[in-house]
């Protein structure tokens, strides 16, 4: 199930993302939804849920923002592991860091296309001397059939 440290999107409750229901461009679905790929979650389970960009929206991008995390320290860096799916042609997926004193989002990690439509996994480490939020940003340049960005199983270490 979903808890503070792990968001698997099997239920709507995911404490790290307080505004999940207010993000209309992300849709919580599974591989049986009839909405094109991905046709399963990262474990190959067709009935398990994940988030993907909603192809019905005109949006070409969608942000998923965490709640505010406290500053990290040397002993407890914040490590975030997540599974992601990026469409081959025009998908882009970014992870950004927004510190409390800054208006801008600093790009921490990004990947685009050329991934042959498969689930991949990545871990990022965040080091911040002040309060911060983490932003997951999915983008597709075109609304061609099957073009999407998806995310699943986001895990936060105790340093977050």
TrEMBL record:
Gene name of the record: Malrd1_4
InterPro entries for the chain: ConA-like_dom_sf, MAM_dom, MAM_domain-containing
SUPFAM superfamilies assigned: Concanavalin A-like lectins/glucanases
UniProt name for this protein: MALR1 protein
Pfam (any one): MAM
GO-annotated cellular components: membrane
MAM domain mapped to chain residues: 5-160
């Amino acid at each position: 199930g979903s808890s503070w440290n792990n968001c698997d999107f099997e239920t709507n409750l995911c404490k790290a993302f307080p505004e999940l229901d207010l993000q209309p461009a992300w849709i919580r679905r599974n591989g049986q939804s009839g909405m094109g790929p991905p046709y399963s979650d990262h474990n190959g389970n067709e009935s398990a849920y994940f988030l993907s960009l909603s192809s019905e929206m005109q949006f070409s991008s969608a942000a998923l923002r965490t709640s505010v995390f406290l500053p990290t320290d040397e002993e407890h860096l914040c490590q975030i592991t997540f599974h992601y799916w990026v469409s081959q042609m025009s998908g882009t997926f970014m992870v950004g860091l927004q510190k409390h004193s800054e208006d801008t989002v600093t790009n921490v990690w990004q990947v685009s296309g050329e991934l042959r439509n498969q689930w991949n996994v990545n871990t990022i480490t965040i080091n911040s001397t002040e309060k911060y939020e983490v932003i997951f940003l999915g983008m597709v340049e075109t609304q061609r059939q099957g073009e999407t960005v998806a995310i699943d199983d986001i895990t936060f270490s105790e340093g977050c």
